[in-house]
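Lab notes, practical 5.
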Amino acid sequence: MKKKSLLFILLPSIIFGFFMLTSPGINNKPKGYVGISSSGISIIILITIILLIYFLKYNGSPQFAPVNLKTEKTDKKNDKANEPKIGFKDVAGLDEAKEELEEIIDFLKNPDKYRAMGAKIPKGILLHGPPGTGKTLLARAIAGETNSKFIAASGSEFVEKYVGVGAKRVRALFEKARKEAPSVIFIDEIDAIGAKRTLESNNEKDQTLNQLLIELDGFNNDQTVIVIGATNRIDMLDEALKRPGRFDRNIFIGNPDIKSREEIFKVHIKNKPINPKINISELAKRTHGMSGAHISNIANEAAILAVRNNKKSIDFDDFNNAIEKVIGGLERKNYSIIEKEKRRVSFHEAGHALMGKILSSDLISKISIIPRSQALGYVMYTPNEERFLITKEELFNKIKVMLGGRAAEEVIFGNISTGAKDDLKKANEIAFQMVCEYGMSDLGNRFYEPTLIKNCYDIIDREINKIIDLCYKDTLEKVKLNKELLSKVANVLYEKETLTGEDLNTIIEKYNSTQKVSII
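Output from the prediction step:
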């Protein structure tokens, strides 16, 4: 390419100069002939030299040269002054995990007292659990608590299509940690590079994982370097990565219990103007099963709603509306629904609430037919108590409550609608777990691995159908027996659009007093 460009630049000047120099008019200059003068030759030579210099400069920085692959991430200077420090005091509800990590921090600060007892520093700590439970927050808290160098990275930073780049980045990361020991390496979403190796996995991914395994094994005993990994999918990690000697401690970070949720609420409302009448314990009950990230979002949404309504403090209504927004989605205020469908939705939601009261499954906190997100109505439940184990009968009752809306439609209108789509999905999920995971079907004490489900699908499908049909039959009978009460609840819901748990209890108590016998 260089030779061709030079040839095209010099060729016109060479041809023109050669023609003029060999022209007879230059030497003989016959009469009437207009030849080229010596100054003209000088101009040609000068133009040629200028073109040649331009070519050399142009070629020195070609625009079409191949781009060099940048194999190392540019180190970004951390602005510690503008970055708020987070300590263990800012992490609520993870007492066991904090206790484990405080021991590691003490090891980094005072390694001699542990070595005197012959104790070795753990090489790796694996934090795993559902999303939003505080794994990354814990790692940030370590940076605030320890005086050691904290090096954060993400699993996706090591994933490249070019072979060898990921492995090189792993080597550079650990080399930096060794030079600046004592240090802590935090790798978020470690499943991006630590996934199980298979015949279908690519060479680059395997090389990156192999390098990570080698680096974890390669630490000297006197080096105070700890690796902390975080993942939502521990089942995806390679077995060689999870073994002791690489990740010595596996810490499960689950969703907080009611006491932990109270502590998390206190952390997130600490710097907010809160109405003193707010009951934190009640908020913790209403957020059963939610993660710390959900609670943080609820506190923030409540503050936004208070500002929107020009309030000077955040009250209980703001928190209630924030919880509904997080669970059910945005309220569709301008959504128009025809009266015929509104009445059907009223009976559908009343059916759910009625079955919940008959079976005493969970406390009902709210019933609404105001559309939110894709739902035309919803029933919110508050658990009676914090539960970790569920019996077979309780799972059957959960399915019956979910099918209560469809059963109410069939009893009142004589047909069913598409409104039970989400209910059917959840009911079938519970039935599937009962058959394949909990051993609660006629198949007995069986557990089906995901790889075996395809081969046994017909048997599993029959058992799921049996459970759903049995639950729906019982639900229909109970709704028919309480058809009059169902109508009363649905009619009040149709008029008011929203009922609280207390409103529902009042309707039922009034109905029972007229019947002179307790129906529920």
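Observations recorded by the TA: Residues 457-481 form the longest helix (25 residues). The domain at 88-252 is CATH 3.40.50.300 (Rossmann fold).
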